[in-house]
Amino acid sequence: MKKSYLLPKGFKSSGIHAGIKKGKKPDAGLIYSETPCDAVGFFTKNRLKSAHIMHAKKHMGGRISAVFANSGSANAMTGKQGIKDVENITAGIASLLKAKKSAVLAASTGKICKPLPVKSILKSLPVLVKGLSGSDKNFPKAIMTTDTTTKVASEQVNIDGIKCTITAAAKGAGMISPDMATMLVFAMTDADISKSILKEAAYDAIRISFNRITVDGDMSPNDTVYILANGMAKNKKVASKGRGYNKLKDALCKIFYSLAEDMVSDGEGSTKFIRINIKNAKDIKQAGVIARHIANSPLVKCMFFGESVNPGRIMSAVGQTFETVNLDLAVLKIGDAVIIDKGLIVMKNYAKAAKEMKKKKYEITLDLKAGKQDYYLLTTDLSIEYVKINADYS
Amino acid sequence: MKKSYLLPKGFKSSGIHAGIKKGKKPDAGLIYSETPCDAVGFFTKNRLKSAHIMHAKKHMGGRISAVFANSGSANAMTGKQGIKDVENITAGIASLLKAKKSAVLAASTGKICKPLPVKSILKSLPVLVKGLSGSDKNFPKAIMTTDTTTKVASEQVNIDGIKCTITAAAKGAGMISPDMATMLVFAMTDADISKSILKEAAYDAIRISFNRITVDGDMSPNDTVYILANGMAKNKKVASKGRGYNKLKDALCKIFYSLAEDMVSDGEGSTKFIRINIKNAKDIKQAGVIARHIANSPLVKCMFFGESVNPGRIMSAVGQTFETVNLDLAVLKIGDAVIIDKGLIVMKNYAKAAKEMKKKKYEITLDLKAGKQDYYLLTTDLSIEYVKINADYS
Predict the structure, then answer these.
(1) Which pTM value belongs to this model?
(2) Residue A153 to residues A216, A259, B372: CA-CA distances in angstroms?
(3) Residues near B380 by beta carbon (within 8 Å), at least 6 away in sequence
(4) CA neighbours within 13 Å on the CB side: how many for B341?
(5) What is the mean pLDDT of residues A100-121?
């Protein structure tokens, strides 16, 4: 797995400034495939949904030639006009690409309630289309909001002697949470794979990556993962679960996990990257609930930021879940230092735990001794910078 | 209702420094009633519970003469030793007061995992007992942790020509949330009221006060409300629900609501006091879930702190609840300014909303048009100071 943006065969992309954001930063991007693709999409569970999601759900069934993406406006809470805006923009792109109107999807990210500046975008579309290139590096920049770095990953696998490429670009940073974290992800592959099992592979990859991260516990109306497959590698079509499928799925898992890590590392104002391991929970639901309660507790997050060993806050967060665990059996480690053993603090390991907490990246492990289910969740601290970013955002 | 600490007839209290906190601030307090009291108690629902709660649950059935309180240590996650410590301290007090051992309760607040310095406390008990006075002002100070002010309230009511007093002292500030907010409350009355209906009145008063506040969504292992009634006003015993009961209940409601307001106003690092009104929810569960999602969203809280009009964050928080509400019908007001109408932003009221958000104290009102249930929840912003306090706490 490489942290690079290597476009698979037949894919081109571009990114320009289209007048959505102030200044001159790229805010509009386009992905295009020479051959129409099978496309699968996964969307936010927030009941408030961006207009692009309503639009995409109508068109995901057919084959897809292009995806328009923008930052600077979420196009959420923009009513019927918001949906018309998506239709106008995607129709404009379809006309320039000589594609079917229904073959162009969209994805927006940015401020809620802010309508898209459609006139300005429509005027920019010819430049956006003209910029399409197989060696483009601007698309990953065009989707950034409060991200401080682009997020890309690429992997190549050999399917029956044919090299197939999977590449994805993502944005994260804020409103990162439950279930599918807040983000846009655009994955492309030239592998020939049937749509139904591509969807299964993508679902499995999302489950252990984007569904395992939380920055602030807030879920956005825009979360979207698109996966496009154009088959241009001309491998023997992967139509069932076997070696080829497993290779592609493993590659997708690696790419998505890497992007998930990138999102957490670049979480708004974050100074820490924490992996929370839950061991021996009763079941996956219990493990997930407990991990999220720990990760989303403001007091725990401030403790991470302050590098202060205060394991009582973690255990108190666990106690709030009403999950039936016996806290008198629990063992909590910070890095390798056992800091809670059978529910009691282990003072002799305090210094070792304190040293671990000074690291930029570390793990905490809670053994619940309640069953056999393990789990993990990636999260950040709550910093002064997070508050500053989100107080001044508008 | 007066914000004063007027001890009811027969009650005395005291507060001293007993070596639990660094420095010289009061950290141990005592409440004593000349006549043993009927006592009712309400405790945290966190599965992690302070030792004082385990101890109190054993003894709440009998009559109570005194309550010991301390700040500086939560005596939580302290195992069997923690319970022994409570037993030793309450036994020491009982012996000095010539009361039954089982007639002394305790309540702790402060850092989790930190054992009580029992030797130092036992040595201080004679001074604490000697300090008992009907005009004491130190008890409310002794229970403060990150509180910046004492929290007291008092009300007098006339029961069949007899003046009865109800007074309470409280602490709040951090770990303030779900269900019963994080806090200690000590209420005393000289009214003669039967224990069973005192419990009902207290429950009703808690439901609309301490159960309606959230600072950070974190629930502590220590939350405790004690209500002591010694009957020394010698009114005709209030034994059933009638005029006398209603007067006492109303007084308790006023006192508890006032203390709840004080806790939120003094929430850790808070710069804003926000009352979230939910109108026309389907039912009380829906209203509560939605109000708490709004109040506990870090993005919404940062918006309050930053005084920025970003109502999409509020609607996005509502969308995360999975409650079946039609967001296209919702009306959101900031103060009197309608900022979302039928799911769409009302730009002409932006300036008015912005002006409201500059106030220290204001209300937001979300009309869900889903039913007939109204609700409210008191909360704060998330400030840079909150992060500082909780990063440096240990």
Answers:
(1) 0.82
(2) 24, 7, 51
(3) B215, B264, B267, B270, B271, B272, B273, B274, B301, B304
(4) 9
(5) 92
Q: Are residues A253 and A350 in the same domain?
A: no
The answer to whether A349 contacts chain B (CB < 8 Å) is no
> Are the C-beta atoms of A76 and A113 separated by less than 8 Å?
yes
- Write the DSSP symbol of residue B371: S
Is residue B342 located within the same domain as residue B248? no
| CA–CA gap between residue B268 and residue B263 (Å, rounded) | 9
Handedness of CA A192, A197, A199, A200 (dihedral sign): negative
Instruction: Specify if B6 maps to a domain.
Output: no
d(CA B194, CA B13): 24
Q: Is residue A4 part of a domain?
A: no
B162-165, long-range: CB within 8 Å, 24+ apart, which pairs? B162/B233, B162/B234, B162/B235, B162/B236, B163/B233, B164/B8, B164/B189, B164/B190, B164/B191, B164/B233, B164/B235, B164/B248, B165/B6, B165/B7, B165/B8, B165/B9, B165/B189, B165/B190, B165/B191, B165/B233
Q: In Å, what is the CA distance from B148 to each residue of A348, B26, B145? A: 34, 14, 8
Burial of A133 (0-12, 13-18, 19+ CB in 10 A): middle
Minimal-distance CA residue of chain A relative to B328? A79
Q: In whole angstroms, what is the distance from residue B386 CA to residue A302 CA?
A: 9
Token pair of B253, please? Answer: 């409601």
- Chain B contact for A175, CB < 8 A? yes
User: What range does the domain containing A200 cover?
Assistant: 11-265
Using the structure block, give the residue that is written with the tokens 């894919």: A11
Which residue, B238, B265, B292, sits at the end of a domain?
B265
In this structure, which amino acid lies at residue A207?
Answer: R
- ipTM of the complex in this document: 0.78
Helical segments of B135-194, H only: 139-142
Please give the torsion angle defined by the CA atoms of residues A93, A96, A99 and A103, in that order, rounded to the nearest 10 degrees.
0
Number of C-beta neighbours around residue B265 at 10 A: 18
* Bridge partner residues of B238 (DSSP): B193
- Which of B79, B305, B344 has the CB atom closest to A344's CB atom? B79
What digits encode the pLDDT tens for the residues B341-364?
998 889 999 999 999 999 999 999
- Residue of A289, A302, A340 to mutate, interface with B, max B Cβ within 10 Å: A302
Q: Does A347 touch chain B (CB under 8 A)?
A: no
Nearest chain B residue to A345 by CA distance is: B113
Q: Which residue type sits at B362? A: Y
* Whether B165 is catalytic: no
Nearest Cα neighbor of A338 from A326, A352, A328 is A352
Contact B112 A317 (CB under 8 A): no
Same domain, A216 and A290: no
What are the average pLDDT values for consecutive 10-residue runs of chain B, which has 394 residues? 95 97 94 96 85 93 95 89 96 97 94 89 98 97 89 95 95 54 84 96 91 70 90 96 95 94 82 94 93 90 90 88 86 96 91 96 96 93 84 61
Residue B287 and residue B228 share a domain: no
The reply to whether residue B77 touches residue A315, judged by beta carbons under 8 angstroms, is yes
CA atoms within 13 A on the CB side of B165: 16
| Pairwise CA distance, residues B146 & B172, whole Å | 8
State whether A151 and A281 are in the same domain: no
Give kind and range of the element (H or E) at residue B380: strand B373-380
Concatenating the DSSP letter of every residue in B260-288 gives HHHHHHTSTT---EEEEEEEEESSHHHHH
Contacts of B79 in chain A (CB under 8 A): 328, 343-344
